[in-house]
Amino acid sequence: MTRKSKLIISIGIMLTSILGLFFGCLLYKDYKMQNEMLIICVYGVLLTVFYLWILLQKSDSSHLKAQGFPFMIIFYHVFNLAILIFGMNLPAVYRPICAVPMLLTILFGVKTGLASMVLYSVLTVLFGLDPIEAILLYLIFGVAGSFLAVTFKSTVKLIIGSIGLIIVYAVFYSGLNYYTYGEYLVSDFLVGLIGGAVQIAVFLCFFPFVAKNLQFNLDKKLNVICEESFDLMSALKERAPAVYEHSRTVAKLAEHAATTVDVNVMLVRAGALYHEIGQGLGGNYIKKGMQICSENNIPEAVIDIVREHNINVSKPITKESAIVMLADTIISTIDGLKKKGSPVPDKVKLIDKVLTLRISQGHLDECDLTAGDINKIKDSFCGAWRKKDGEGEVDDILSDEPLEVPEDFFEQN
Q1: Are 267 and 220 in contact (CB under 8 A)?
Q2: How far apart are CA 274 and CA 290, in angstroms?
Q3: pLDDT tens digits for 67-122?
């Protein structure tokens, strides 16, 4: 399947590029000399080959197994070719050729996004009658957009990042005009805002399809890394059995809560299993955990949870990170009380105090959890121990005795 998908992408992109270049040359033959047409075709083919080479290097098997994925990539390419060929009557600032490179960056990484940005920006200027500043505008914005696009991991970041990119586009456009003509006009900045809005509008139209594909790939990887036989899990079990059992308990509690709100349950489970994967390796366990996860190609979403489960390092940004952080706080609190020989408090009071503390100190301010989500999570945490006779998701963790939480415990921890 992988080889077949790569073949479909290769043939589709090369064929549509050649046809697009040929059609574009016919369409603009009255504006270009024959030698210019030849240069456009040669440059277009060479840049397409370079872009395709980078793209296929970054296409892992999970991407290529997604239903319709090869055709989606070909469609994005055809879309941008259509902009290049039929959009020449539009001013360069309004041509939305940066959206596709940003989408490719999210799917494959910065290198692929930049390779596609070079291809499309060079071709649009060669086909049109635009000044060289147009290439600079596309490339500069493409670089900024590519690096920012990979940070769009929540609705808030997507909105803030999109607004930021529109402003960046306007600043670069007005700045290049000032550099070229020696005069700064407010109208240039306003035109740049409109042009940036066009780029982002096209990006947002395609973004849901990319997000769906990413979800497919992520779920495939999460299923694999959550297996007990997976190398990192086996190593943790052997290296630090207590940490391994702690992580499994946190995962059970977190997963129980995740089923009640709109989150990726499998991601919550994986994040909980890996949140202390760096224990027993020496040094800062969070940095070690992020490093070992990165070296073993663990999804970035899981690495984010490794970092964000500890509020002393980073507040949770996503709902998944927040759920893991809360579950870990509860289980760690219980473990801490047991180690000190202190009585374990009533589960409802402990859970209520944990959530109240986290909310009051602003530890949930950065994530998208609503008040309704938090109430559901709280009820789910409490409900994890309500089932009897071994049917509960978390067995024999909290005492049934209604004991009070020591008032100074949370202030000390």
Answers
A1: no
A2: 9
A3: 677 888 899 889 988 888 887 778 888 888 888 888 888 777 778 888 888 888 88
DSSP label at 314?
A: -
Structure tokens at 362: 């602003």
Q: Is the pTM of this model over 0.85?
A: no
Q: Please state, in angstroms and rounded to a whole number, the distance separating the CA atoms of residues 44 and 54.
A: 15
What's the pLDDT tens digit per position in 282-320?
A: 888 999 999 999 888 888 889 999 999 888 888 898 899
Task: Give residue 192's identity as a one-letter amino acid code.
Answer: G
- Judged on CB neighbours under 10 Å (0-12, 13-18, 19+), 136 is middle
Tokens of 383: 């409900």
Nearest to 165 by CA among 195, 208, 121: 195
Q: Could you give the 3-state DSSP secondary structure of residue 366?
A: coil
Tokens for 10, please give them. Answer: 């290769």
- Give me the torsion for CA of 26, 27, 30, 34, rounded to 10°: -30
